[in-house]
Amino acid sequence: MSHNTPRRSAKAGTTEPLWVRWTLTGIAFAFLFLFLVLPLAAVFTEATRQGLDAALDALREPDAWSAIRLTLLIAAIAVPLNLVFGVAAAWAIAKFEFRGKAFLTTLVDLPFSVSPVVAGLTYVLMFGAQGWIGPWLQAHDIKIVFAIPGIVLATIFVTFPFIARELIPLMQAQGTDEEQAAIVLGATGWQTFWHVTLPNIKWGLVYGVILCNARAMGEFGAVSVVSGHIRGQTNTIPLHVEILYNEYQSVAAFAVASLLALLALVTLLIKQLVEWRFEREQKAAAALPPERPLAASVADPV
Predict the structure, then answer these.
(1) Given Cys at both, which of 130, 188, 228, 255 links 146, Cβ 3.0 to 4.6 Å?
(2) Contact predicate 223/241, CB 8 Å
């Protein structure tokens, strides 16, 4: 019995006693229940406190529909733009050496260290009526702040690191051997990207897009500053929840908040499916015999 215990501990990846592992696991689950599961349950409970019909009526209200449409529109604009930027930035940082590379990497991380409220104030300072180019914008009847373009800019700022930061370590770990082999075999730059680089990063790319979309739909600080809180026009779902709660419409506020929480849960489910598919493909690839390098198939496509 004593000989099998070290083997089981090594297999589990730890040498701690069983009671220590169970205690740590229990603390983790208790923490998650207290700070994650319980608040989510409270949101859905409060949303249906006066019945399901009252919650649905709050979601059918015109201002709520406007907030939902605007949130989806902002995400539909910001996520594809961040997708293009994230792939380009990650490709440049991970695959090439150039002057200013460290500075570009620092800029990618900037939104993680700057408060979203400060980012929103920066856009007001630039594009507001008293801002640097505000008078010129007013003279040409162009609205940035307190309009949809300002919300898009603020959302892009707070979400653009997610895709790039997901891809950079993945691309760095993969190296440049396959890309160089494809170029030696006669592939062009675009062929190398589409047939070699992109297939190798597809699951990391999907994962980054999911995180970016979740943050875009739930962003509050920067959007709150640049939106102007115009009901039915510039209020996203988080801003609409705040207005309803400040007006003591608690059932309506929690009903709309439950929709945002539901979107977050769906995002989490998609994230788990992506991770499961990625792990499944990794196990399947490890079980297969070595194949001809992918780069070789670029030069002689069927």
Answers:
(1) 228
(2) no
Structure confidence by residue, pLDDT tens digits, 68-100: 999 999 999 999 999 999 999 998 898 888 888
d(CA 81, CA 123): 18
* Spans of the chain, pLDDT less than 70: 1-14, 288-302
Report the alpha-carbon distance of residue 43 to residue 166 in Å, rounded: 31
Q: Which of 13, 71, 4 is nearest to 234 (CA)?
A: 71
Query: Which own/partner contact pairs does 34-42 have at CB distance under 8 Å and 24+ positions apart?
Result: 40/261, 40/265
DSSP 108-168: HHHHHHS-HHHHHHHHHHHHSTTSSSHHHHHHTT---TTSHHHHHHHHHHHHTHHHHHHHH
Residues sharing a CB contact under 8 Å with residue 163, sequence separation 6 or more, in sequence order: 82, 83, 85, 86, 87, 90, 205, 208, 209, 211, 212
Best CA proximity match to 217, nearest among 289, 284, 146, 265: 265
- Condensed to tens digits (0 to 9), the pLDDT of residues 40-66 reads 888 888 888 888 888 888 888 999 999
- Angle between helical axes of 62-95 and 250-287 (0-180°, round to 10): 30
Tokens describing residue 79: 């996520």
pLDDT of residue 124: 92
